[in-house]
Amino acid sequence: FDRTAAEAARRRQDQLTKPRGSLGRLEELAIRLAGLQGKPMPAADPVQILLFAADHGVAAESVSVFPQSVTNQMVHNIARGGAAVSVLAAALGARLEIIDLGMVTDPGPIEGVRSERLGPGSGNIAREPAMTSEQQAGAMNAGRAAVERAIDGGARLLIGGEMGIANTTPAAALACALLDLPPADLVGPGTGLDAAGIAHKTEVVATALALHATPGSTPMELLGRLGGFEIAALTGAYLTAAQRGLPVLVDGFIVGAAALAAVRIQPDVRDWLLFAHSSAEPGHRAILEALNADPLLQLGMCLGEASGAAMAVPLLRLACALHQNMATFAEAGVSEG
Amino acid sequence: FDRTAAEAARRRQDQLTKPRGSLGRLEELAIRLAGLQGKPMPAADPVQILLFAADHGVAAESVSVFPQSVTNQMVHNIARGGAAVSVLAAALGARLEIIDLGMVTDPGPIEGVRSERLGPGSGNIAREPAMTSEQQAGAMNAGRAAVERAIDGGARLLIGGEMGIANTTPAAALACALLDLPPADLVGPGTGLDAAGIAHKTEVVATALALHATPGSTPMELLGRLGGFEIAALTGAYLTAAQRGLPVLVDGFIVGAAALAAVRIQPDVRDWLLFAHSSAEPGHRAILEALNADPLLQLGMCLGEASGAAMAVPLLRLACALHQNMATFAEAGVSEG
User: Which residue of B has its CA nearest to A72?
Assistant: First the structure.
């Protein structure tokens, strides 16, 4: 974090033709981005969205209203431009890279999708670890490599997203373990469970925690036992983004669990995270509180696919445009208060 | 409001490739815009911003930290592209029309500003009515005519904004009178008053209310006695927008007071108002509650100039893009839950 650039940005904000502080969080955003990017005139573009997809063995425990085949179907839909993240990326002019880390069935080559399969989905966390240490290293490396590609391509802002039927279950289990909270605090409806479904999912998470969240486990161990390929890839991506100085706009519940893991592995990661939105998934609140995060948007979204983060991109862009293009009191010949 | 179009939009939302309701308020926005525009595929563009400027006699009571000359200076700054609203309109590709309804000194012709002067600013509401009935009619007609021009130009979404040093004072007074609330509930720091300044401003508003908010006064009378030229123009603009079926994205505190007056004059206006943001000006809350409004953004802004409304434009655009461009379950071959 470049305090000199941030301080220069703050001084500039105080000279722009507006009452001091009247742009609220837009001023904070411009100043924070200036510090993160080391430039008094920060930029939100280019924006790189990384969309990691994988299947989850815990889907066998009937924790989702959608069948597991939907992961594969949605990866095709995202690649063809029909999913929410595809529409948002196109509308925003953001780059979108889709990475398949292992769905239950190998779909073969899909145009616009990188295949980096680590296996036929992760293990069923109610019975076994989500992944081997080799798979975990592979997933985290896939995240790291994707961020390196983004940086090589000139990205100034990173967004991670996910697609994987049943993945609110490992996300809730991982967050419970990292935060030492009971399953009832983190488990929610996901894509649409009713009360009975949520009660069952809560039991599944409790079983997984009893099996894997043994005293003294490290965040890295919990990520491998309770996470998923796409969650571990996101954690790896955020560790790398922070190390390489690339600001991250964090999506909702599942990505939030991955971000939490990254911060528990390396606390300095927190500085690089901007939180886009509060998910309607109720467990998101506990993750946000643990990360001392105050998201920019509250739109009642809970779709995943980086959609909530994408919605906040215009706020960052406009914050940068105001910072760069507004006249100062001196330039405009306007009297100060 | 076209219930058939709204219902068609709702059915489409339920067929798009996402869990039902997972786009939260973006789904509501698309459905509501569909009903307001009478089209199952609504659009947010073109966006027309109308920026009304005027001076206020009550500035003589020392209710603002900025000198009155700043209204004139800021109108020049807005026209030259250096103000927040200018930067936002350019970044968003929104149309911006600036209308001078009467500053204390006639600035003569300004490139990019329509001169529709009604006098050298409004009267000092602590001593006299803000305007004559002729001036009030002129201001409301200026708002009406501006909306007619916007509609003739093809606008699909209207944003009103204001510039006028001291205008949080008439806005607070007008809202107090319309809501029958004490000045302390509506008076705030505006552009930066300290506690002593707020206490003094509260007394000025109390004086104005004692003079003008006589029992049995109509909303139209209160607008003329306590408002300002730009506030009355905004009220006229919103009455016309509703009558002509043009959705309005409402800015913050001052515009909110004008919108409240429009709704009290003609309750059906409420249907046409979408609320963009919660202002940091504390009195905004009472106006929003009275209008049963739940704004899209909470960014701690309090700049005026339509800046808060402009920030919400991307949300409406992206809501429309998702509605129009996402694939349905059938189109994408995705299984429903």
Answer: B334
Before A282, cis peptide (omega within 30)? no
Length of chain A: 337
What Rg do the C-alpha atoms of chain B give, in angstroms?
Answer: 20
Q: Identify the three-state secondary structure at position B296.
A: coil
Residue type, position A70, single letter? V
Query: What's the CA dihedral at A327, A330, A333, A337 to 10 degrees?
Result: 100
Angle at B238 (CA atoms; ends B232, B240), nearest 5 degrees: 105
Q: Per-residue pLDDT tens for A214-251?
A: 999 999 999 999 999 999 999 999 999 999 999 999 99
Residue B236 identity (one-letter amino acid): G
Q: What are phi and psi of A212, to 5 degrees?
A: -115, -25
Q: What is the largest CA-CA distance in chain A?
A: 70
Q: What is the mean pLDDT of residues A111-135?
A: 98
CB-based contact A97:A78 (threshold 8 Å): no
Cross-sheet strand order for the sheet of A95-100: A113-115, A95-100, A47-53, A157-163, A248-250, A273-275
Residue A17 near residue A329 (C-beta atoms within 8 A): yes
Q: Which positions 68-127 of A are in contact with B (Cβ < 8 Å)?
A: 69-70, 73-74, 76-77, 80-84, 87-88, 90-92
CA distance B262 to B242: 10
Residue B38's CB is within 10 A of a number of other CB atoms, namely 14
Confidence grade of residue A306 (pLDDT, cut at 50, 70, 90):
very high
DSSP B320: H
User: What CA–CA distance (Å, rounded) separates A180 from A175?
Assistant: 8
DSSP, residue by residue, A118-153: -SSSB--TTTS-SS-HHHHHHHHHHHHHHHHHHHHT
Is the Cβ–Cβ distance between B95 and B47 less than 8 Å? yes
The pair phi, psi for residue A160, each rounded to 5°, is: -105, 145
Select from B16, B18, B320 the residue whose CB has the most chain A CBs within 10 Å, as the one to mutate to test that interface.
B18
| Mean pLDDT in residue range A89-107 | 98
Segment B38-72, tens digit of pLDDT: 999 999 999 999 999 999 999 999 999 999 999 99
Closest chain A C-alpha to B71 CA, distance in angstroms: 9
A305 among known catalytic residues: yes
pTM reported for the whole predicted model: 0.97
User: What are the φ/ψ torsions at residue A96 (nearest 5 degrees)?
Assistant: -130, 120
Contacts of B317 (CB under 8 A, 6+ apart): A91, B44, B45
Strands (E) in chain B, as ranges, are: 47-53, 95-100, 113-115, 157-163, 248-250, 273-275
Helices marked H in chain A — which ranges? 3-15, 25-37, 69-80, 84-92, 133-152, 168-179, 183-186, 195-212, 219-226, 229-244, 253-265, 284-290, 307-325, 329-332
